[in-house]
Amino acid sequence: MLYNDQPIGQDKDDELNRTPFVDEIVELVDRYTEADEKKDNHDGLVIGLEGDWGSGKTSVLNLLENRFQDKNERYVVQRLDSWLAMDRMTLAAEFFKTLGLAAVDAGTFLEGESYVKEKVLKLPKGILNFVKKFTLSLSILNGAFKVDFKQVLQGKTLRKEKEEVGKSLSQSKRYIIYMIDDIDRLSNDEIAFAMQLVKNIADFPKVIYILAYDRAIISEALQRIDGRNGRDFMEKIVQVPIQMPMFSEQDLLNYFGKELRKIIPEKSYIENKAIYYTTAGKVIENRIHKALLPYLRSIRDCNRVLNAFQVRYLICSSFCDADDLLCIVVLSIYEPELISYISDNPDSVYPKGINQPSNSSEDDTPEKYQEKFKNDAQCSDDALIILAILFPGFSKKAALHVITQTDGNEAVIKNKISIKSNFSSYFILSSREDDVLSSTVEHLLKDADEPRIQEQFVAWAKNGQWSGACSKIISYCDTRNKHLSLTKDRLKILLHALSLLKDNPSFDQQLHPYADLAWYFLEKATGYSPFSGTTIVLDVAQQDMLTEIFEDRSISIEILEALMKPIGRGYGWNPSEANGSYLPLADKDVFEACRDIFLRRKNPSISDIEGESKK
Questions:
Q1: pLDDT exceeding 70 applies to what percent of the chain?
Q2: Where are the alpha helices (DSSP H) in 110-238?
């Protein structure tokens, strides 16, 4: 579902609680008309609905129109969407035609006064004559309304025509609510022309104008046209300026979060470790979204981001973290120079030497680093905060003390952008061959058969992806990761697949030692971690499993040798260790049993010698 940025039209669609504001405007108009009815001479009124682009002015006009139409015994409503007019001539024609139709609906002009109900495009004669004179005075192109200049010159003066139109309007039983939208979308000339139209007929009795615009844009346009102070000119036209209510941060957060959860269902949150439905997850969601708030100033901004994110997430969710991708999408929209800079200079957000003691000059202070980065990337301070959330190294270098997102092994599993090998995945709209996807790694560890595992290992090696793949495999096998467990049967399949690589030319001595993965597979199956700092004491089943592995002839000697490195710690197995200088990772009996099996497998002659000695 794409967000089409359409304004709301009904109260039931009001998710930002604008209805009380609309009701206040209706009450203001009701009080005004009640007081005006008691007067002998009726006046017109111009209300200005002022707000920034995207603040919801059209939505408010829609809700107001509904309210006034429900009071049709008192009001007649007409709308002019000024942006639809292509030029000043069309704008003037639409302006007066809309006013004329409203006047007829209000019962102002009699049927016999050149108005025929079946031909609603005809204007009442009084307004038509006024239009001819008015457009001539404004120097609209000759022929715009097929003006008969002889008739105009022989007829009544413009002032007299206006007085007669006003007299007819004052006799109406209903007030005309004349709404004009999108004035701030016109060109400067058209803005000035539209405002002049309103100014010259704003005092028509029983006509209430509600103009929707951005005051700053209108004021600047008026000043550019005639050099006068635009704000002063506006004050002469608009009698009741009403500022659009600002959306609270919480309103925007609630709306944005609710719509975001429609894009990313709960199941996907769990699969991607971006869980928003727990207490801890809520904290993460709010922290990230609050960092984005400077860019989400209106519903229109929110919808723009949601649309862009929805498309990107649909394609990239399998290899990008949802939170990180959202941040990148926002920066892509509002800080394009920054995205261009870090795309060309990825090392800028993965700075080196951040943990080294600083004895440098003032030019290397975090403040200077921030200033230089901002100048190079042409970004704002708000963007720096988002970068600090995404990139822990950047956060430290710039001394931006924010709570950074998950780093380390869990960040690898979640495809976080804080891991440099994941960086390129966030700037593409399709999967690339050099991306190592967490979903692929998880499938191999859980479900794939031996040939498929071996095939993928070889493909990673040929494509130069082996280092990144190993990082993700190790992270998945870390016992602190509770999302994966390996059975004995699954462990053997993985070790068999590794063993088949011993003669593959892609796995030479220069490549990351593939056999070292064997220990990570084993520790995941046993539930122990070499990072825990405690002695591993295997139970009977685990000891039998370890023995089976060493006796399994389908597991290569290279794999067994890799397994002996951690198993032999603390027992002098590794030449670099002094005996007892390391805390043992395995029970001594287990170590000795595995050592004996390994030595017999490595050097079969040992078994022959031992057999002869026993004889």
A1: 69
A2: 125-137, 149-154, 158-170, 188-201, 215-226, 230-237
